[in-house]
Amino acid sequence: MKNYQISLAVHDLLLQIFADRFDINLADFVVLQINNVNLGYLNQTFAKHLQQDLSHKLQIQNNTFNLIVNNWQEAADLLQDVAYQWHEKGIYDGWRNEKFAVTHPNGEVLFALERSAFRPLGLLSHAIHINGYIEKNNTLMFWIGKRSPKKVIAPNKLDTLVGGGVANGESIHNAMIREGFEEAGLPENLLNHAEVSGCHMSLRKVHRGLHREYIHIFDHRLPDDFIPQNQDGEVSDFILMNVDEITQQIIANNFMNDAALALLATFNRMGFLLDNHKLTQWINSNNYNIVKQ
Prior knowledge:
Helix content: 25-40%
CATH class of the largest domain: Alpha Beta
Strand content: 25-35%
Number of helices: 9
Shape: globular
CATH topology of the largest domain: Nucleoside Triphosphate Pyrophosphohydrolase
Distance between the termini: 32 Å
Radius of gyration: 20 Å
Number of strands: 13
């Protein structure tokens, strides 16, 4: 098992897939600033809507929209109202009625905002993924979740064992504990000592704007007799897969993108990727090492 490596041909296919899915040029987007602080990125559609709705508050120069406010609470109120209006008008879908934290580039939390507004505004969010695995017949087997057909994002796609957003006011560790139970029935005592194994940026265009998220990944060995059980209705099934089966499903586009990235990052840490391949180099360069508990 320790000497196992994914084949060169599969590396080449995965590199092509990741180059396509995560190929992004931020110069194509309008920079969103608030009081001269870079916080988000707008595609042309949402830049046009924001200019129409907040023209009295925007300074526009050099492909940058600078929202001028008296304080962060005013920014929160303005953007929350605009996002709600966009949702009501059908400009974007998927209103969640839950909030994520908008953070300064230095990590300081500035204000809370409706989760579904992060993609239209290109704001940075945080999520956790748990890659839960067991050993069977000297082979690592990973528990893979299948997302509910009712999910707004990536319905029916394959996922890591656990994946979910970090809510406003919630630590990475507490989000992992909460999501671990909600999505897979993982008891808290099984996760208490789990530590983040890596942090990677998922940056890609989506139909609602720009997905820009740090994913904090936990590589977690599970008891061999543990059977995951979903608690919140967001996962329809769980399947045990080996590394080859997972990579083939990624190539077949059956995994959600962030889950594919999280799994390949774990495979890299476990030594399953070729050291000098461009895929491995890309994953290593994408490791941000900014774990925040």
